Amino acid sequence: MTVVRRIADDVAVLDGGRVVEHGNVVDLVSEPGSYVGSTLLPQTDQAEQLKPSVSGHDVVAEVVLVGFAAVGALLPEASNRFGIDLSILGGGLTRLGDTPVAKFRVGLTGEGSESALKWMIERDAHVRRAPAKVEVAA
Fold first, then answer.
1. What totals of helices (H) and strands (E) does the chain contain, helices first?
2. pTM for this prediction
3. Strand order in the sheet with 85-96
């Protein structure tokens, strides 16, 4: 995968001789459930730990950011613009060719949390939001 990360523009994933995923590397890493994304991007904790009830935040989400401007400024700008506390709970940064790509698990606290997520999505962040409440079966 180091070669894919450094030089590949497009990739195909084979499983049992069948193509199960193919396309532009940067596009694939942004798709939820992508094998390429799960292999090339920094890992965050298990989905179970995405739940706000576990983290103590109002909202918890995985956010994938692509490009210099997004990686460097989008999260702090969302925090300032919407008056929320935004914590990086896991993840990191990598490069796909010359393009920086980050995957973070973030916790947002404050009334503007939902608006901040929507604003990030409008600016091409790829967001997978955790469930708001955890239901416990009796």
1. 6, 6
2. 0.76
3. 85-96, 99-109, 59-66, 126-129
